[in-house]
Amino acid sequence: MRPEMKMRRFAEDTTVPVQKSRAEIDRLLRDWGVEGIQWQDDFANDRIQLRFVWNVSGMRYLARVGIKLPDRKALEKDALDGRTLRVNENKMRHLLDARGKREHRLLALWLKAALNAVDAGLIKAEELFLPFLEGKDGITVGEIAVKNLPMLLSGSAERLLPGRMA
């Protein structure tokens, strides 16, 4: 892509309500065979979380995918009144109400593609969802790995196997 070209952001102007996207995501995951689905809205921290459990050969896996929503500060520039250059509270309320529409559409698209890749045998579900797998302590593999990425990549991946960590 040439530097002067700007790629259109998927679902940027979507009118699909959050609940409709969530229903689609729930249906995708249920059809794929998950045992449970949980949504958590964390309005204080502008986050949404999706958690789901599935079973592979008797092993239960719990995955957690977080969605960061734009906060009030990020939306202020789009809520400015052109004449007064002050935040128009009606515009702001509309923008706050619309938060999550795009993010949920993106999550639905990503999950649809991911689950199709798993079904086609391109990748195993455990590998695909590895960064999102959550331990009993509530921390995901990705959260641990990102924090330790330089150390993890400084040698052979075999070091990660039990008994081989130096």
Verbal overview:
The protein has 166 residues and is α+β, with helices and mostly antiparallel strands. The protein folds into 2 domains: 18-134, no CATH class; 137-166, no CATH class. It has helices at 18-32, 72-76, 89-98, 101-119, 125-128, 141-147, 149-152; strands at residues 36-42, 47-56, 59-68. It has a 3-stranded antiparallel sheet with strand order 1-2-3, covered by helices on one side. β2 and β3 form a beta hairpin. The longest helix is centred in the middle third of the chain and has 19 residues, at 101-119. The chain starts with 17 loop residues before the first helix and ends in a 14-residue tail after the last helix. The model has no long low-confidence stretch (mean pLDDT 88).
CA(first)-CA(last) distance: 43 Å
**Radius of gyration over alpha carbons?**
20 Å
How many domains? 2
Individual helix count: 7
What portion of residues is helical?
A: 25-40%
Q: What string gives the helices and strands in order?
A: HEEEHHHHHH
The fraction of residues assigned to DSSP E strands is 15-25%
Number of strands: 3
Strand order of the largest sheet: 1-2-3
What's the rounded overall pLDDT mean?
Answer: 88
Secondary structural class: alpha+beta
Low-confidence stretches: none
Overall 3D form: globular
Largest sheet: 3 strands, antiparallel
